[in-house]
Amino acid sequence: MNSDETIRLDRKHLWHPFTPNSVWMDPSFHPVSIVAGEGSWLVDAKGRRYLDGNSSIWTNLHGHRHPRLDEAIRGQLGKIAHSSFLGLTHEPAARLAEELLAYVRDGKNPEKLSRVFFSDDGSTAMEAGLKMIVQSFAQTGQPQRTEFISPEGAYHGDTVGAMSLGKSDLFHRHYQPLLFPSRRVMTPFCYRCRFNRAKPETADARSYRQCGFECAAQAEEEISRAGEKLAAWVLEPRVQGAAGMVMHPEGYAKRTCAAARKVGAKILLDEVLTAFGRTGPALSAHAEGVTADVIALAKGLSGGYLPLAATLATEEIFRAFDGPVENTFFHGHSYTANALGCAVARASLALLQDPGEQKRREDLTKNLRQLSRTFWSHPHVGDVRQEGAILAVEIVAERSTRRAFSPSERRGARVCQAAREFGLLTRPIGDVLVLMPPYSTTPDELERMVTALHRALTGEIPA
Ligand SMILES: Cc1ncc(COP(=O)(O)O)c(C=O)c1O
Fold first, then answer.
1. Is the CB of residue 252 below 6 angstroms from any atom belonging to ligand 1?
2. pLDDT for 78-128, tens place per residue?
3. Which tens digit of pLDDT belongs to each residue from 175-201?
4. Is the CB of 268 under 6 A from ligand 1?
């Protein structure tokens, strides 16, 4: 089938996530139809090659068609693709659980996590986490602990529970009647913080902020106010992805999680985006020595190959479900612990721990830091922030005042659309341009990504 036919059928029958009809259905818009991938490259139906600048929406770790991941799936496919996990078990899931728990312990960080509940994606991993926490409190004599606190702009997925914790007027306004109430505290976002008295500099705003760390203090106060009603403090540790790759000031996770512990609440970390070395360590929270009671993992868990997610929990939480049948965790999905997903996730974890691969990732992170300096030469760049292998470039109408472009101008989207012409695929978050390369990206490919984005920026927004 040629690509025109694919697009005709697509426009007739399909419905894409987070995609305005006005854009997709506009005949002057030409969707890219992907037919193949190889390493950090994607190939479209016309044979054009593009660098996968956001790792296929933050999922892909080792590149496309990695021989070891492909082999893991083939090996499992020769046995069975899927069987129910209700009342049955299988080796790929049992082994993956053990390896995953050892991986997040990371040799030095004493995680108390000892249980793995599998599901399909980030939203379901979070949903399971919320329910586990509330039910475990209810079954251990603290039924009043039903409240959750998270930072403004948090994004945990699109199911009703996950949406209830997050906050987006644009995304959620029609669903308000469905959402449960939750408390929110200010986003720890140095570049746009009203407490940051520092004038803009050509550096990551976290490095020159002048403030009294009000974001952490406010969160501590709110946590303490919630006290014994608080079920959990919920955090995307160190990087709030969909909020605009907001990178938190050093120490925020540590202080706020300590406050939650003080009032006897649980800590629920959403590491859907940040785990598996994306920000450096196995878990992003490890950079601040934070340990959690529940952790949601997805995206990179299968190396970006198959929908697989995991909610990790402590033995204490698991044991709260002992006793009569009514104490069961009445929650699950048809594809829980899909065997193909588990097999490929094991191969991905093995690669992540390969010393050669770790060195490659470290080099990638260093090169990205070095190359990203080029963005400062553009006067409409307001903030360049990086955490591990995540780079965010925030473009503004006026650097000296941090004044934003009007959202209706869709500047970020226009820059990323233009980047296609230079062989780069990536998606912005508003006016935040994102580069999050697969770990397989070579120095030359990385340089091409940065150059393509810079050229697109200069073309769309002349200096
Ligand atoms: C931090 C975080 N949590 C949860 C999710 C939801 O994951 P999924 O899209 O797999 O449901 C996302 C998705 O971007 C995310 O970034």
1. no
2. 999 999 999 999 999 999 999 999 999 877 667 789 999 999 999 999 999
3. 999 999 999 999 999 999 999 999 999
4. no
400 three-class SS: coil
Candidate from 118, 234, 272 with most ligand 1 atoms within 8 A of CB, to mutate:
272
Identify the pLDDT of residue 168: 80
> Running DSSP on this structure, what letter comes out for residue 281?
S
Task: Give the number of other Cβ atoms within 10 Å of residue 397's Cβ.
Answer: 16
How does residue 463 score in pLDDT terms, banded at 50, 70 and 90? Answer: confident
Task: Give me the domain span that covers residue 437.
Answer: 32-65+355-460
- 84/188 same-domain check: yes
Amino acid at 259: A
In a shared domain, residues 336 and 443: no
Among the candidates 303, 337, 352, a domain finishes at 352
Q: Is the CB of 273 under 6 A from ligand 1?
A: yes
The CATH number of whichever domain residue 421 belongs to comes to 3.90.1150.10
Give a yes or no: residue 366 inside a domain. yes
* Whether the predicted pLDDT of 167 surpasses 80: no
- The CATH number for 148's domain is 3.40.640.10
Is the distance from the beta carbon of residue 120 to the nearest atom of ligand 1 less than 6 Å? no
pLDDT digits (tens, 9 = 90+) for 235-265: 999 999 999 999 999 999 999 999 999 999 9
CA of 188 to the centre of ligand 1 (A): 19
Is residue 60 within 8 A of residue 34, CB to CB? The reply is no
Query: What local confidence, expressed as pLDDT, does residue 430 receive?
Result: 96
Residues 114 and 251 in one domain: yes
Residues 231, 359 within the same domain: no
Q: Residue 310 — left, alpha, or beta (φ > 0 → left; ψ -120 to 50 → alpha)?
A: beta
Report how far residue 153's alpha carbon sits from residue 169's, in angstroms, rounded to the nearest whole number: 9
Q: What is the model's pTM?
A: 0.97
Our count of domains for the chain comes to: 2
Compute, in angstroms, the gap from residue 461 CA to the centroid of ligand 1: 30
Shared domain for 77 and 149, answered yes or no, is yes
**Any atom of ligand 1 within 6 Å of the Cβ of 237:** no
Together in a domain, 217 and 157: yes
Q: Give SS3 for 51.
A: strand
121 lines ligand 1 (CB under 6 A): yes
Amino acid at 224: S
Asked if residue 330 belongs to a domain, the reply is yes
Q: How far is the CA of 70 from the centre of ligand 1 (A)?
A: 24
Using 50, 70 and 90 to split pLDDT, how confident is the model at 60? very high
**Whether 148 and 253 share a structural domain:** yes
DSSP states of 54-119: THHHHT-SS-BT-HHHHHHHHHHHTT-S----SS---HHHHHHHHHHHHHHHTTTS---EEEEEEE
